[in-house]
């Protein structure tokens, strides 16, 4: 920015910023460190000395017990099914609708697009009760279609993809059209390759949303075999306590921490690997 | 496809129209059906899972339906019941207090941290940004469970740390005074990094020229922060306040997992209050509650948008 000479006060300011950031990052990372490290501590130590970590006492006991008492693989499996089905629907249909709004003129376009934006204002919470009744009417409670279909084609993704596709030069599409491409051909051969970074960002954000979704899964599913990972996690203490006679914190906490570690660390690792897409995806909502 | 095949029927003019079409609207009238087909899935899905339940809920909100049996019309009964029920207002008040505990400190903090990180010559900005956003990507339910243990009154790490420095331990989730702040701390921990990233992007959008002009005028760091950075970030700040407000008005999972609304109903947020109608099968009442909440969210958004507009003038 400015090429002024580094003065003493400037150096001090930089130091203060680094010190402040160090404290902030420590606060931000400590809960995750505590969760992961405590999950490898002997049960009694988690409660008697919650602040210390001695690598010599490293144990996998909690993980063994947790995989036996918590249906976490069922949760992972159902979340994976949801990611594939719901994520697939989002990634196929939302960019296509965005393409129509970005590159076509048709009667009613502005009205329909405005309508889509309006539905953004509709909180999920409001639809939950009637939607649950609709699901029971369709016999879709405790089914994958009930879990996946509502909200799979979401307004925000369409809005976002419209912005991304609007950035493609019209000349490019024009050229494809002169070559005799159909609408879908134009989309597949010209639009898709160009918007690949935007699609990657959409995929990452969709993954995060589906992985962490809780409100709808906890409402539409009560059958244990269809519970998603987050629903399984919300019942942790119950499933751990019912699997053993002794339900003192010393035995329950270790398993609880093992389960939350198994559920959280993969997302954190995926995030760090894909962080560029992630940040772009998250920012897309803010830079309208 | 069909249109391109039709084109040879009148080759001359069609080709001319294509060549002569202004660049701004190249695809006009070429595929009149295609765009409708592309947007059709959203509208089908909206009719099935948006409009239909919404209308159903509207009808339901005028009945005292409990999940089975006949729908009995009770007019505005549910609405008047809610508006005169102290529990309904208490749930709104709980959400309001959550808002006060979270949004002001988070927004001001995020702007200040983003401004500090944007200073010239600071290294490691990318690393800071990545690390700050890590809590945002962790699953909320998992972290809510960890929070219960961290803030456990008897065995939690936070009380252990307090005792280690000679402070009394606190009943974080077991006293009405601390239950809301403890949940607010989780929200702050989880979403502040996101707020900082938004503010960082907004600051980077401010032209360097503005700051250089201020440098020439001899403006100090604080002066530049208050008279350049903050005013030029109003849009981003307003955007963040709107989404944070919408999020808090629907807060449900945090108290659902951590306190189930207790102790003494101190953490029954408007979202959890609404959810509890399902548990007690008061579906008509729940539907009416939904609409009151939508109205409130709508008014809050309207006020925020208003504030955003007046600031832009």
Automatic annotation (TrEMBL), chain A:
<dbReference type="InterPro" id="IPR000515">
    <property type="entry name" value="MetI-like"/>
</dbReference>
<dbReference type="Pfam" id="PF00528">
    <property type="entry name" value="BPD_transp_1"/>
</dbReference>
<keyword id="KW-0812">Transmembrane</keyword>
<feature type="transmembrane region" description="Helical">
    <location>
        <begin position="12"/>
        <end position="33"/>
    </location>
</feature>
<protein>
    <submittedName>
        <fullName>Multiple sugar transport system permease protein/arabinosaccharide transport system permease protein</fullName>
    </submittedName>
</protein>
<feature type="transmembrane region" description="Helical">
    <location>
        <begin position="111"/>
        <end position="132"/>
    </location>
</feature>
<keyword id="KW-1003">Cell membrane</keyword>
<dbReference type="GO" id="GO:0055085">
    <property type="term" value="P:transmembrane transport"/>
</dbReference>
<dbReference type="InterPro" id="IPR035906">
    <property type="entry name" value="MetI-like_sf"/>
</dbReference>
<feature type="transmembrane region" description="Helical">
    <location>
        <begin position="252"/>
        <end position="274"/>
    </location>
</feature>
<keyword id="KW-0762">Sugar transport</keyword>
<feature type="transmembrane region" description="Helical">
    <location>
        <begin position="144"/>
        <end position="161"/>
    </location>
</feature>
<comment type="similarity">
    <text>Belongs to the binding-protein-dependent transport system permease family.</text>
</comment>
<keyword id="KW-0813">Transport</keyword>
<feature type="transmembrane region" description="Helical">
    <location>
        <begin position="76"/>
        <end position="99"/>
    </location>
</feature>
<keyword id="KW-1133">Transmembrane helix</keyword>
<dbReference type="GO" id="GO:0005886">
    <property type="term" value="C:plasma membrane"/>
</dbReference>
<feature type="transmembrane region" description="Helical">
    <location>
        <begin position="190"/>
        <end position="211"/>
    </location>
</feature>
<keyword id="KW-0472">Membrane</keyword>
<feature type="domain" description="ABC transmembrane type-1">
    <location>
        <begin position="76"/>
        <end position="274"/>
    </location>
</feature>
UniProtKB/TrEMBL annotation, chain B:
<keyword id="KW-1133">Transmembrane helix</keyword>
<feature type="region of interest" description="Disordered">
    <location>
        <begin position="1"/>
        <end position="21"/>
    </location>
</feature>
<feature type="transmembrane region" description="Helical">
    <location>
        <begin position="97"/>
        <end position="118"/>
    </location>
</feature>
<keyword id="KW-0472">Membrane</keyword>
<keyword id="KW-1003">Cell membrane</keyword>
<comment type="similarity">
    <text>Belongs to the binding-protein-dependent transport system permease family.</text>
</comment>
<dbReference type="GO" id="GO:0005886">
    <property type="term" value="C:plasma membrane"/>
</dbReference>
<keyword id="KW-0812">Transmembrane</keyword>
<keyword id="KW-0813">Transport</keyword>
<feature type="transmembrane region" description="Helical">
    <location>
        <begin position="183"/>
        <end position="203"/>
    </location>
</feature>
<feature type="transmembrane region" description="Helical">
    <location>
        <begin position="236"/>
        <end position="253"/>
    </location>
</feature>
<dbReference type="InterPro" id="IPR035906">
    <property type="entry name" value="MetI-like_sf"/>
</dbReference>
<keyword id="KW-0762">Sugar transport</keyword>
<feature type="transmembrane region" description="Helical">
    <location>
        <begin position="130"/>
        <end position="150"/>
    </location>
</feature>
<dbReference type="InterPro" id="IPR051393">
    <property type="entry name" value="ABC_transporter_permease"/>
</dbReference>
<dbReference type="InterPro" id="IPR000515">
    <property type="entry name" value="MetI-like"/>
</dbReference>
<dbReference type="Pfam" id="PF00528">
    <property type="entry name" value="BPD_transp_1"/>
</dbReference>
<protein>
    <submittedName>
        <fullName>Multiple sugar transport system permease protein</fullName>
    </submittedName>
</protein>
<dbReference type="GO" id="GO:0055085">
    <property type="term" value="P:transmembrane transport"/>
</dbReference>
<feature type="transmembrane region" description="Helical">
    <location>
        <begin position="33"/>
        <end position="55"/>
    </location>
</feature>
<feature type="domain" description="ABC transmembrane type-1">
    <location>
        <begin position="92"/>
        <end position="304"/>
    </location>
</feature>
<feature type="transmembrane region" description="Helical">
    <location>
        <begin position="283"/>
        <end position="308"/>
    </location>
</feature>
């Amino acid at each position: 920015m400015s090429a002024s000479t580094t003065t003493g006060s400037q150096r001090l300011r930089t130091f203060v910023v680094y010190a402040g950031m160090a404290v902030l990052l420590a606060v931000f990372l400590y809960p995750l460190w505590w969760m992961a490290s405590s999950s490898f501590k002997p049960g009694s130590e988690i409660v008697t000395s919650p602040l210390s970590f001695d690598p010599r006492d490293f144990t996998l006991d909690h993980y063994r017990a947790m995989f036996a008492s918590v249906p976490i693989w069922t949760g992972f499996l159902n979340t994976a099914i949801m990611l594939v089905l719901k994520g697939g629907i989002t990634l196929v249909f939302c960019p296509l609708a965005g393409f129509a709004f970005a590159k076509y003129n048709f009667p009613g376009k502005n009205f329909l697009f405005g309508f889509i934006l309006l539905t953004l204002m509709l909180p999920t919470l409001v639809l939950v009760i009637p939607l649950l009744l609709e699901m029971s009417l369709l016999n879709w409670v405790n089914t994958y279609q009930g879990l996946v279909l509502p909200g799979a084609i979401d307004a925000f993704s369409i809005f976002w993809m419209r912005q991304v596709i609007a950035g493609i030069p019209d000349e490019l599409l024009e050229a494809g059209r002169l070559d005799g491409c159909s609408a879908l051909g134009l989309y597949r051969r010209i639009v898709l390759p160009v918007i690949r970074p935007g699609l990657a960002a959409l995929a990452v954000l969709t993954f995060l949303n589906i992985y962490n979704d809780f409100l709808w899964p906890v409402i539409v599913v009560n059958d244990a075999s269809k519970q998603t990972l987050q629903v399984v996690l919300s019942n942790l203490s119950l499933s751990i306590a019912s699997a053993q006679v002794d339900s003192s914190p010393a035995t329950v906490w270790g398993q609880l921490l093992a389960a939350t570690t198994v559920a959280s660390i993969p997302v954190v690792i995926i995030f760090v690997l894909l962080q560029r897409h992630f940040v772009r995806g998250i920012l897309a909502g803010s830079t309208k | 496809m069909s249109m391109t095949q039709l084109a040879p029927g009148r080759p001359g003019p069609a080709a001319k129209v294509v060549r002569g079409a202004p660049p701004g609207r190249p695809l006009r009238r070429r595929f009149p059906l295609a765009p409708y087909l592309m947007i059709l899935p959203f509208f089908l899905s909206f009719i099935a899972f948006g409009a239909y339940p919404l209308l159903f809920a509207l009808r339901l909100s005028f009945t005292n339906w409990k999940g089975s049996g006949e729908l009995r019309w009770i007019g505005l009964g549910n609405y008047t019941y809610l508006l005169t029920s102290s529990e309904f207002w208490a749930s709104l008040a709980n959400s309001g207090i959550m808002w006060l505990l979270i949004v002001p400190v988070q927004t001001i903090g995020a702007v200040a941290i983003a401004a500090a990180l944007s200073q010239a010559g600071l290294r490691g900005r990318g690393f800071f940004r990545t690390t700050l956003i890590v809590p945002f990507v962790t699953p909320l339910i998992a972290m809510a469970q960890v929070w219960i243990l961290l803030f456990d009154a008897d065995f939690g790490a936070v009380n252990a740390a307090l005792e280690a420095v000679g402070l009394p331990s606190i009943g974080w989730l077991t006293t009405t005074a601390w239950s809301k702040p403890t949940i607010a701390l989780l929200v702050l921990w989880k979403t502040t990094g996101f707020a900082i990233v938004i503010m960082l992007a907004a600051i980077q959008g401010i032209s360097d020229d503005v700051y250089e002009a201020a440098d020439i005028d001899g403006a100090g760091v604080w002066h530049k922060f208050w008279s350049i950075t903050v005013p030029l970030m109003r849009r981003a700040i307003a955007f963040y306040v709107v989404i944070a407000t919408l999020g808090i008005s629907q807060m449900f999972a945090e108290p659902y997992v951590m306190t189930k609304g207790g102790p003494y109903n101190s953490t029954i947020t408007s979202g959890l209050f609404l959810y509890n109608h399902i548990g007690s099968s008061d579906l008509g009442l729940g539907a009416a509650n939904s609409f009151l909440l939508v109205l409130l969210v709508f008014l809050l958004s309207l006020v925020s948008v208003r504030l955003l507009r007046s600031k832009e003038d």
